[in-house]
Design goal:
The chain is mainly alpha-helical. The chain has helices at about 1-5, 10-20, 25-40, 40-55, 60-70, 75-85, 90-100, 105-120, 120-130, 135, 140-150, 155-165, 170-185, 185-195, 205-215, 220-230, 235-240. This is Pentatricopeptide repeat-containing protein.
Length: about 240
């Protein structure tokens, strides 16, 4: 498919497809650089090269490339932040955030909030969250990672306050609050939320989160009852149970 996009002068689609590939091989990278050659844009080339380096887990070279770039846009910062989060180096993600002048982008705050989730410092989290513009606070993805972050820092009041403000929760937000309750030993509350969810919004992740929540609270019978009523039991669900 990559080759087809390149042969039809659709370099942008080829690069978008590359970003979805988890473990690119040598041939994939050759096709990627052919796509870059079609773009002819320095910014596009730099972004694609950086993403390729991060995918190869070569963050040292990616950082050197980033530092050598004359002008790094939002995309470059986002790629590096994503790489450091995956490497479990959230402090470097925050260092990049502090360097930025134009921070008000949802993709940037998504990576920063994920970094804060790993750090688990309430005061630090609060100081950065206060900087998020109000319009971004209504973004579904931002709301989901915020629920996850507050849950991991033990700020369950913040979790409930945020969740209650969401007019129509999606499956990711339901899974996030169930997981947050579970992490804080509130299995009963997690089950109450689970029982409220429409069947069309319950997926594998939701089932795994509720089973884990029951486990954290020692609710063995409740977990067994939920497990027995799961229509399609995946390997991950069996493993969790």
């Amino acid at each position: 498919m990559l080759k087809g996009y390149i042969e039809n002068n659709q370099a942008t689609k080829a690069i978008q497809l590359f970003h979805k590939i988890k473990d690119p091989n040598y041939v994939i990278f050759i096709l990627l650089f052919n796509s870059c050659a079609q773009l002819g844009s320095d910014e596009g080339l730099n972004l694609t090269k950086s993403n390729a380096l991060v995918k190869c887990n070569d963050l040292t070279y990616a950082q050197s490339f980033f530092d050598a770039s004359i002008k790094n846009g939002v995309g470059m910062y986002a790629v590096m932040m994503n790489g450091y989060n995956k490497e479990n180096n959230p402090l470097k993600t925050l260092n990049l955030f502090y360097q930025m002048k134009d921070k008000n982008h949802s993709i940037i705050y998504l990576h920063v909030i994920k970094a804060l989730s790993r750090i688990g410092d309430y005061k630090l989290s609060q100081s950065i969250i206060e900087q998020i513009p109000n319009d971004l606070l209504h973004d579904n993805q931002i709301q989901t990672v915020l629920i996850d972050m507050w849950g991991k820092s033990g700020s369950i009041d913040k979790v409930k306050e945020l969740f209650d403000k969401i007019s129509q929760s999606n499956q990711y937000q339901y899974a996030a609050i169930i997981n947050a309750y579970g992490l804080n030993g509130m299995g009963i509350q997690a089950i109450e939320i689970y029982r409220q969810i429409s069947l069309n919004l319950i997926d594998e992740i939701t089932h795994i989160c509720i089973l884990n929540a029951c486990s954290h609270s020692g609710l063995v019978q409740e977990a067994r009852s939920i497990f027995e009523n799961i229509p399609i039991k995946t390997v991950s669900i069996y493993t969790t149970m």
